[in-house]
């Protein structure tokens, strides 16, 4: 069989990314242009600026990805793109670029769900054994997804308020750390000599849902208390207390679900999978439970187009294509 090449585009938030992937899982190039520096001074992603930056970067990143892969556009067999969820203006740039390419090259268009991408980033590093459970933790999402078989997604738990990464970013902001704050809170937590005890939101005993807004409020209350007493804030102890609360809850719920549904593998994915404390705790729990754990390398955990190709490849192999009428869907469900 002749090798096939998917070109994938991801623009759902603040990274413009284009990847070329051969035969579904061999990443030939995965170029990511981050807008973080642009958004940093606003303390978060500004949607209007994100869209404009995607427009500016798209053709440059596209050419770079094709060149880095050592292919030409005539080698491309299908164009995949993140259809949603995400910022509507940002998604539109990717979708319009993908449609134009698909039309010009006369190849199929494959719309892809962003979270399917995060989950199937794991296809790029290993073989997924079903049933599997994915713990998706990112700036926009916190979900436990049961995968009974390839391409089937059953969301068994989700956040009722903030996403984990969002909570990290808000806590970081309250501690005057730069955006995005997750890595800074993680580092502080590792350095802390002790932890300030904070609440854990277990919700109903049988629930796989999450809630982080109460924890975030508890952090803000601690900061206010220190300020009122005129005491300096022990940022490290607070970061560690916050991180321990998050890790205790997400790992406990993931392990309970893994056992209840008898999964053969646990997949950790999304930007917060970069968190050292989370990776270490999950690794040791999985080892104790004799449950194989897949965690993509950092470059495949944060938003990138190779993960979109990995998810789109399942549709490619089933011949599930989209028409050129496909629309960006900011609220697309899995
Ligand atoms: O998956 P991602 O790149 O974008 C979304 O699709 O949301 O995730 C970005 C999120 C940000 O909230 C960032 O603060 C968080 O991942 N993050 C971390 C760490 N590295 C990135 N959170 C905690 N610890 C980290 N080491
Ligand atoms: Zn993402």
TrEMBL record:
Cofactor: how and how many bound:
Binds 1 Fe(2+) ion per subunit.
Q: What's its EC?
A: 2.3.1.234
Note the superkingdom of the native organism: Bacteria
Q: Does the keyword Metal-binding apply?
A: yes
InterPro entries from the entry? ATPase_NBD, Gcp-like_dom, KAE1/TsaD, Peptidase_M22_CS, TsaD
Q: Could you tell me the Gene Ontology terms of the biological process aspect for this record?
A: tRNA threonylcarbamoyladenosine modification
**Function of the molecule:** Required for the formation of a threonylcarbamoyl group on adenosine at position 37 (t(6)A37) in tRNAs that read codons beginning with adenine. Is involved in the transfer of the threonylcarbamoyl moiety of threonylcarbamoyl-AMP (TC-AMP) to the N6 group of A37, together with TsaE and TsaB. TsaD likely plays a direct catalytic role in this reaction.
Family membership noted in the UniProt record:
Belongs to the KAE1 / TsaD family.
Provide the protein name: tRNA N6-adenosine threonylcarbamoyltransferase
């Amino acid at each position: 069989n002749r090798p096939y090449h998917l070109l994938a585009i991801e623009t759902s938030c603040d990274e413009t990314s284009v990847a070329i992937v051969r035969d579904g899982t061999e990443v030939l190039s995965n170029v990511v242009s981050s807008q973080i520096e642009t958004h940093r001074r606003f303390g978060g992603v500004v949607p209007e600026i994100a869209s404009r930056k995607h427009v500016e970067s798209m053709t440059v990143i596209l050419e770079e990805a094709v060149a880095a892969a050592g292919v030409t556009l005539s080698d491309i067999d299908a164009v995949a793109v993140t259809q949603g969820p995400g910022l509507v203006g940002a998604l539109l740039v990717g979708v319009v670029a993908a449609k134009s390419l698909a039309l010009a090259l006369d190849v199929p268009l494959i719309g892809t769900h962003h979270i399917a991408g995060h989950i199937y980033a794991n296809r790029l590093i290993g073989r997924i054994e079903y049933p599997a459970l994915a713990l998706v933790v990112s700036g926009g999402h916190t979900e436990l997804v049961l995968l009974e078989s390839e391409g089937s997604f059953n969301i068994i738990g989700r956040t009722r308020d903030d996403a984990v990464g969002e909570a990290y970013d808000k806590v970081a902001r309250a501690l005057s750390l730069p955006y995005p704050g997750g890595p800074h809170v993680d580092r502080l937590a590792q350095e802390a000599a002790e932890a300030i005890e904070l609440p854990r939101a277990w919700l109903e005993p049988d629930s796989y849902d999450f809630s982080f807004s109460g924890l975030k409020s508890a952090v803000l209350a601690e900061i206010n208390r220190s300020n009122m007493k005129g005491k300096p804030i022990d940022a490290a102890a607070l970061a560690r207390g916050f991180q321990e609360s998050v890790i205790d809850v997400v790992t406990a719920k993931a392990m309970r679900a893994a056992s209840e549904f008898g999964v053969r593998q646990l997949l950790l994915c999304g930007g917060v999978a970069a968190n050292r404390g989370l990776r270490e705790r999950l690794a040791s729990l999985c080892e104790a439970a004799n449950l194989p754990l897949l965690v993509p390398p950092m470059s495949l955990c944060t938003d990138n187009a190779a993960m979109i190709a990995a998810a789109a490849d399942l549709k490619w192999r089933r011949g599930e294509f989209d028409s050129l009428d496909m629309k960006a869907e900011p609220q697309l469900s899995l």
